[in-house]
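hiii so um. not sure if this is the right channel but i have a protein structure encoded as tokens and i wanna go backwards to a sequence. like what aa goes where. can anyone help
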């Protein structure tokens, strides 16, 4: 590596591919793949080249902001901001309890350290309820996963003979390392096969051997038919099942009764194609499969997640190389708050008493420690005594990203106090009482906990490329100051730890045990305390990494064997791991295991997979033979949020990031549908839902299914133009969506199944 190439990572999607970059005058000027990154190994996609657009975001903040009564904002200094935010949140806590404060967010595609430090502020305030974007996509999957496996799961496509993608377009969205290379390899190998369930001929579907182009919203029927074919044709992996699954009786019975041809009709897929795909999965040595938003944001999504896992259980596609596996998490993403991980949701609390396993007003289950995103506005806009009265929102943009933007705005305005911690004046920040500006991900030490590798799992702590922008603070500093202002700890607690940290990490470990032994209550605010104590001892600009010291200790304690196999041995293994993290600018392998080790992570007593969830078998039996609901006034189904090359959730507030000034959301429409409506490519149209309408341009898209149209996710941001006025770029999707249009069990939105009408303009 020549001197002026600096290692970092791409922040555009959750893969965080390792990069090397050159910088000049506050800009990232050259970008190339980092071959030394343990996971991406020299891979990147075209989006990385445009990454500087994040750093040059138009709405970047450079001072804390306070909302005036007239709705405008004034800049205030940090001391005032911290003192007022702490006092106002403490006042809500004192009047109504910490459980009336909701924390939303904690990280986005590449930055999870806010989630580490906010734990301390939440503990200092007694906050009990949290939510984030996982609770609008992954909670249905987590709910069934907890009941069937009891551990997190990922998928080894690299070594799989057959790959199955359910409502997932990895060519655009990635979701596993080096996705395009892996897809190409599978497509080119006559002995391997790809099965894609997607109404649209996505880039991935176009490479597939079996493209099941289902009617939108019919995943449950399709997966039920596939599972039923396995059982009805005797294709299930009996020998494997005998050793590894339990409670299969009622499930096999229900599947044996599924009318496969009728279900194929509901899906609009040729029955022989369905049977061929099932046969290909069943006869493969290894099958890896992944579901994503196409199903998780559709009707019957929780049932779909269950049926997907039945296919895994029936084919033996778990715990072997080339199948699904239980990964070893460096830090679990859905930690804190208990609830769903155990899979239990009790409903036995006395009247008027709180039950922290359910959301306080709507009573939705708390899963992964999270309440459903789609319930948040109802948990606020009510006179229920247990309603939320304050929110802390960090590194996320719920006004824009959650269903029903208008309703989210109303909810935020109804709170006694709201605080946003972000790098930019986002749509959400523009509704908050206080906005605290964070340094960007290239201006501090940052990292993500999207670490899911099967055999050699890696973590990448990135070093800053630039000094923090004037007026901003890193999240460690923000939360340490809030904690101090809330009286969580003071110099007396910090001093001994700081002195030890100046000597060595091993001294710190000893001092930490002593301090925590003497005052166990400090454990809950350990991350912010560590920032104050260890941060100053870390190399220049690396203070935000201090909290990772604690994560490394917890990890080596919980996964001793896997850490040892990665070389971190002995009573101070956590320190050795932390040192390795600091010393590895391209990332470090922190855990090693074999695919077979997955079995040890299963929560069930015998280390077996439970196939039977009574509610899910009931839902399977209750599937409507007519298919999902239709609305004659809204004849199209809008997929409200599609991953394209120009999207990166809402994290890039810079319309130049694609083609100068041309960031528009196009509505993809099948050419025959467009012809029927008299629309040419590029024609302006209004797309209308029961909730609202938006203007956009038609894009003729051969890959669309008739009757199915789609808009990109994350666009439609209200961004400051160079002239200083706010301009919208593209369609703000969630103005079109309704918070009540959601899964009945876990509350995830049906964004992929929004009934809509299209009207030509002019
Ligand atoms: N470029 C880019 N990459 C990203 C992101 C981004 O914003 N931009 N976001 C990241 C995030 S946060 C996530 S969660 C992932 C999501 O990644 P994906 O889920 O793969 O992304 P989508 O494009 O939303 O949906 C995938 C597919 O679902 C299909 N689909 C629509 N309706 C249905 C249906 O009823 N059934 C089925 N089976 N399929 C249907 C769509 O046609 C689409 O091809 O992407 C991540 N990667
Ligand atoms: N209709 C519809 N809605 C959707 C989707 C869809 O497909 N359709 N997709 C959904 C999905 S899957 C997801 S994951 C969500 C994503 O939506 P959100 O969870 O809201 O996340 P992002 O849009 O990634 O927003 C990240 C925020 O973090 C800020 N940020 C960036 N760097 C930093 C930093 O270093 N520190 C701090 N404090 N802040 C920072 C950015 O400015 C931005 O405001 O959107 C969801 N919304
Ligand atoms: S796959 Fe994701 S992280 Fe990797 S270069 Fe592309 S956008 Fe960036
Ligand atoms: Mo997501």
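sure thing!! here u go:
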């Amino acid at each position: 590596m020549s001197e002026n190439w600096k290692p970092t990572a791409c922040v555009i999607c959750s893969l965080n591919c390792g990069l090397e970059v050159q910088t000049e005058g506050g800009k990232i000027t050259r970008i190339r793949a980092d071959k030394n990154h343990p996971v991406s190994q020299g891979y990147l996609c075209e989006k990385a080249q445009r990454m500087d657009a994040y750093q040059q975001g138009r709405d970047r903040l450079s001072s804390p902001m306070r909302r005036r009564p007239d709705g405008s904002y004034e800049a205030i200094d940090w001391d005032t901001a911290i003192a007022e935010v702490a006092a106002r949140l403490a006042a809500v806590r004192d009047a109504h309890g910490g459980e009336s404060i909701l924390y939303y967010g904690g990280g986005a595609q590449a930055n999870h350290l806010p989630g580490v430090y906010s734990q301390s502020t939440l503990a200092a305030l007694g906050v009990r309820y949290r939510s984030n974007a996982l609770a609008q996509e992954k909670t249905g999957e987590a709910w069934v996963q907890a009941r069937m496996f009891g551990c997190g799961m990922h998928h080894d496509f690299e070594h799989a003979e057959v790959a199955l993608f359910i409502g997932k377009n990895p060519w655009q969205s990635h979701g596993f390392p080096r996705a395009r290379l892996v897809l190409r390899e599978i497509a080119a190998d006559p002995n391997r096969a790809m099965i894609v369930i997607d109404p649209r001929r996505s880039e991935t579907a176009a490479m597939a051997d079996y493209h099941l182009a289902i009617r939108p919203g019919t995943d449950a029927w399709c997966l039920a038919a596939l599972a039923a074919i396995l059982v009805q044709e005797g294709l299930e992996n009996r020998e494997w099942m005998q050793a590894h699954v339990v409670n299969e009786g009622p499930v096999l019975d229900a599947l044996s009764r599924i009318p496969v041809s009728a279900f194929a009709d509901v899906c609009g897929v040729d029955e022989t194609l369905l049977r061929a795909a099932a046969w290909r999965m069943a006869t493969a040595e290894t099958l890896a499969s992944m579901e994503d938003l196409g199903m998780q944001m559709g009707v019957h999504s929780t049932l779909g997640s269950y049926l997907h896992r039945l296919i895994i259980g029936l084919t033996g596609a778990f715990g072997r190389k080339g199948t699904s596996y239980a990964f070893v998490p460096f830090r679990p993403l859905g930690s804190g708050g208990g609830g769903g991980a155990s899979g239990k949701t009790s409903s036995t609390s006395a009247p008027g008493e709180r039950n922290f396993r359910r959301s306080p007003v709507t009573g939705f289950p708390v899963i992964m420690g999270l309440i459903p995103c789609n319930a948040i506005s109802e948990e606020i806009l009510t006179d229920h005594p247990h309603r939320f009265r304050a929110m802390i929102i960090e590194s996320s943009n719920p006004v824009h990203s959650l269903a029903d933007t208008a309703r989210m705005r109303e909810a935020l305005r109804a709170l006694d106090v709201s605080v946003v911690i972000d790098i930019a004046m986002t749509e959400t920040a523009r509704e908050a009482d206080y906005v605290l500006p964070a340094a960007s991900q290239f201006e501090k030490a940052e990292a993500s906990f999207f670490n899911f590798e099967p055999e050699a799992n890696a973590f990448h702590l990135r070093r800053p490329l630039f000094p923090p922008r004037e007026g901003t603070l890193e999240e460690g500093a923000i939360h340490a100051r809030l904690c101090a202002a809330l009286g969580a700890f003071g110099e007396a607690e910090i001093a001994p730890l700081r002195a030890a940290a100046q000597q060595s990490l091993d001294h710190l470990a000893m001092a930490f045990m002593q301090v925590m032994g003497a005052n166990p209550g400090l454990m809950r605010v350990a991350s912010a305390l560590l920032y104050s104590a260890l941060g100053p001892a870390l190399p220049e600009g690396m203070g935000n990494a201090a909290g990772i010291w604690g994560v490394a200790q917890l990890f080596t304690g919980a996964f001793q064997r896997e850490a040892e196999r990665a070389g971190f041995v002995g009573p101070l293994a956590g320190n050795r791991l932390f040192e390795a993290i600091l010393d590895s600018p391209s990332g470090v392998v922190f855990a090693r295991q074999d695919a077979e080790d997955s079995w040890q992570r299963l929560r069930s007593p015998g280390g077996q997979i439970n196939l039977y969830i009574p509610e899910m078998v009931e839902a399977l039996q209750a599937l409507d033979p007519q298919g999902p609901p239709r609305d004659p006034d809204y004849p199209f189904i809008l997929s409200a949020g599609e991953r394209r090359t120009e999207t990166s959730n809402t994290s890039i507030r810079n319309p130049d990031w694609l083609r100068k000034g041309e960031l528009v959301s196009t509505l993809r429409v099948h050419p025959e549908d467009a012809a029927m409506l008299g629309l040419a490519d590029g024609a302006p149209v209004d797309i209308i839902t029961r909730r609202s309408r938006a203007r956009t341009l038609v894009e003729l898209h051969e890959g669309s299914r008739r009757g199915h149209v789609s808009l990109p996710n994350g666009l439609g941001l209200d961004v400051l133009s160079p002239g200083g006025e706010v301009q919208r770029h593209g369609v703000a999707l969630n103005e079109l969506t309704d918070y009540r249009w959601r899964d009945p069990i876990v509350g995830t939105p049906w964004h992929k199944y929004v009934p809509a009408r299209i009207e030509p303009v002019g």
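oh and Residues 336-349 have pLDDT under 50 and may be disordered.
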